[in-house]
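Quick one, probably user error.
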C-alpha cells in the first residue's frame, strides 16, 4: 500500500510544473475586465453568462468573447493594461473555440511600444487548448503595457467569432489532487483489510 501512495505522490509531483516558476494566468474577474486592445476586429460582448453568450454555441470556458472579424488578415487583440509581471516566468491561458469555424489564437503582450506574440495555434470548432508562454527572457516585465490574446481570421470572409477563456489551474491544485487521491485510496484499502 505504501507503494500505491508513493506512486500517487510521485505522479502529482511530476505532473506539476513546480520547477518552472510561477505562471501568470488571469482570474475569471480579470477576464471579465478584458477589452479590445488592438487590431481591426470588433469585440461586441464579454460575459460569463452562457445564455447571453450565444444559444447556438455553448460556452466551454469561464468567460466568453464574441465579436466580428473581417476578411483575412483581420484580427483582434483582447486583454488588459498596465501590469507588473516581474515575479512571473510564464504567462498562460486556456482558450476554447465555441464556434463552427476555425480561428487562430495566440497569447500577446506589449512592453513599451513593442508587441510580442506567442506561436499561433489554429483552434478547430469545439476544441480548446492550454497555451503557456515563457516570458522570463523579456525585460521590462515590471511595466507591461498590454497583455491578453489575439484572435485571427484564417478565412477569406467576415464572420462572427465565439472564443471563451479560463484561467490555468494553479499547479498546487494538481499536486494536492494527486496526494488526496493517493490518501483516499490508501484509506479505502486499509479499511477493506
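Nope, works fine. Designed sequence:
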Amino acid at each position: 500500500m505504501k507503494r500505491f501512495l508513493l506512486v500517487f505522490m510521485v505522479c502529482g509531483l511530476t505532473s506539476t510544473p513546480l520547477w518552472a516558476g510561477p505562471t501568470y494566468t488571469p482570474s475569471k474577474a480579470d477576464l471579465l475586465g478584458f477589452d479590445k486592445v488592438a487590431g481591426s476586429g470588433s469585440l461586441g460582448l464579454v460575459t460569463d453568462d452562457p445564455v447571453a453568450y450565444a444559444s447556438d454555441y455553448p460556452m466551454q470556458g469561464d468567460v466568453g468573447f464574441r465579436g466580428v472579424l473581417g476578411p483575412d488578415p483581420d484580427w483582434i487583440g483582447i486583454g488588459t493594461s498596465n501590469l507588473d509581471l516581474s515575479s512571473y516566468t510564464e504567462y498562460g491561458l486556456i482558450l476554447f473555440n465555441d464556434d463552427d469555424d476555425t480561428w487562430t489564437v495566440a497569447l500577446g503582450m506589449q512592453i513599451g511600444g513593442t508587441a510580442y506574440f506567442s506561436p499561433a495555434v489554429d483552434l478547430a470548432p469545439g476544441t480548446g487548448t492550454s497555451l503557456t508562454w515563457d516570458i522570463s527572457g523579456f525585460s521590462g516585465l515590471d511595466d507591461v503595457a498590454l497583455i491578453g490574446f489575439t484572435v485571427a481570421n484564417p478565412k477569406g470572409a467576415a464572420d462572427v467569432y465565439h472564443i471563451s477563456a479560463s484561467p490555468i489551474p494553479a499547479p498546487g491544485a494538481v499536486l494536492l489532487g494527486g496526494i488526496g487521491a493517493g490518501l483516499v485510496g490508501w484509506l479505502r484499502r486499509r479499511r477493506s483489510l
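The first strand starts at residue 23 and ends at 24.
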